Amino acid sequence: MEVEIRTIGRGEEAAFVEATSAAFGERPSSAELAESAAGLAEETGWMASDAGRPVGAASLIELRLTVPGCVRVPLAGVSRVGVLPSHRRRGILRRLMALALDEARARCSPVAGLVPSEAPIYGRYGFGAAARVAAIEIETARARFPEPPADGGTLELVDAEHALAELPGLHDAVCSSRSGMVSRPPWRERGRYRDVGREVDGFRPMLFTVHRDPGGQVDGLLAYRTRLDWGADHVPRGHLKVHELWAADPKIAASLWRYCLEHDLMTRVTARWRPVDEAVADRLIDRRAWGQTLTDGLWLRPLDPAALLAARRYGREDGLVLEVHEPEGSAPRRFRLDGGLEGATCVPATASPDLRLGVAALGSICLGDAPVERLHRAGQIEELTPGAVARATAMFRWSPAPWPGDIF
User: Fold this and answer.
1) Rounded to whole angstroms, what are the CA distances from 363 to 59, 380, 395, 403?
2) What's the pLDDT score for residue 2?
3) DSSP string spanning 109-171?
4) Which residue among 24, 76, 322, 355 is the one 20 to 30 A from 226 at the CA level?
5) At residue 190, does pLDDT exceed 90?
6) Short-list 156, 124, 131, 112, CA closest to 308
7) In what order do the strands lie in the sheet with 111-114?
8) CA-to-CA distance for 311 and 66, rounded, in angstroms?
9) Integer Cα distance of 59 and 79 in angstroms
10) How far is CA 138 from the centre of its chain?
11) pLDDT, tens digit, for every residue of 218-244?
């Protein structure tokens, strides 16, 4: 009997969550199961069943993505994707992805996005790595500032209730101001702070520090945990783990980072899923003290290239004809892109193309993180008009680097 895939119905939410968790080798607690199942009210979910038993699942979330120029566009977030080990290599993932992308197109989303558990999986569906993230590890003894950041504000340790009340508005403000940022569904935000009041992996319950501007308004927030280890020599070797750090301005971010790096008894500070170009690193006396490891974060799949490319701004005033190929082998499409710092247009075209690329490569360059020139050298973009690669590289480049901010 062929595996059946259908939209989940009322009362099937728990089975959906259990199937996605099992695909990753996990079993949710009763609290996690209830919270995750309730979150499906904000998503569209599909479940694959074999003889009535759930064997795979996927969901689609309506989100917003900030593109270069601080313009926010609809993003179809593909999430909770998984197939049980017993049913892999049967085309179930391909069918789930087709349903999700068809639904995204029906909703007129210009782009779909996901955060893959494994990098090799989604390129064949037209997704390209569009925004990298950094894992940070710092030895505090080497991380010194020449002088305090002069931001004019104050730092205050607050309780969880106060901090979490401020978080949605602050997160939205940061989303509006940085390319690559993705909005956060309310239930996902609650999930990130489910364990705020208890120890996790030896780290103490979460603490919160906010930054207030001269008028008393919160414009920065730090959520963190600490673990204090005492050796036989009775020397403290503390570890401060940043859970989240949000700031509406680089100076505010520097103040919050300084709070971490100069915290008493802490010899090590770590953070995950951070921007690849944190400006605070260049404020340190010893730039080498800032250690980071980069990896892919957000992957994008353009669905309506014309709408997506017209929404963003460009670093150079120019125009190009792009020929875009789909992974399933449908006829390529051509688009005339004209853009600059003030805006852009992108329309279907019949003229000879300047560049030829797959839709996954377009996803990789659309936020400005992957240079066009690098993908050309990698064989993912073909230059048909001499000089077009250099021109496109200058057009698509954008700073600061995109940062997705969170996993969805």
Assistant:
1) 20, 12, 15, 15
2) 87
3) -SEEEE--SSTTSSGGGT-EEEEEEEEEEEETTT---SS----S-EEEEE-HHHHHHHHHHHH
4) 24
5) no
6) 112
7) 4-7, 43-50, 53-67, 71-83, 111-114, 290-302, 128-139, 266-274, 236-247, 218-230, 207-212, 154-158
8) 10
9) 5
10) 23
11) 999 999 999 999 877 888 899 999 999
Specify the pLDDT at position 230: 86
Q: Domains of the chain (ranges plus CATH)? A: 4-114 (3.40.630.30), 134-298 (3.40.630.30), 304-396 (3.30.1050.10)
Strands (E), 192-311: 207-212, 218-230, 236-247, 266-274, 290-302
Other C-beta atoms lying within 10 Å of the C-beta of residue 49? 17
Joined tokens for residue 120: 């090799």
Instruction: Give me the percent of the chain exceeding a pLDDT of 70.
Output: 99
Find out whether 296 and 353 touch, Cβ atoms under 8 Å.
no
The encoded tokens of residue 370 equal 């992957």
- Label residue 376 exposed, middle or buried (CB < 10 Å: 0-12, 13-18, 19+): buried
Nearest-10 Cα torsion for 209, 210, 211, 215: -140
Whole-number pLDDT of residue 308: 98
Measure Cα distances from 171 to 97, 168, 176, 178, 214 in Å: 29, 5, 9, 11, 20
Mean pLDDT of the chain: 95
Residue indicated by tokens 């593909």: 78
Which residues carry out catalysis?
122, 408
Which token pair is 198? 């208890």
> What is the average pLDDT across 99-108?
97
Reply yes or no on whether the pLDDT at 191 is more than 90: no
State how far the Cα of 250 lies from the Cα of 372, in Å rounded to an integer.
28
Going by pLDDT thresholds of 50, 70 and 90, the confidence category of residue 178 is: very high
Residue 62 identity (one-letter amino acid): E
CA dist list (Å): 197 to 192, 200, 269, 270: 12, 9, 21, 20
Three-state SS for 366? coil
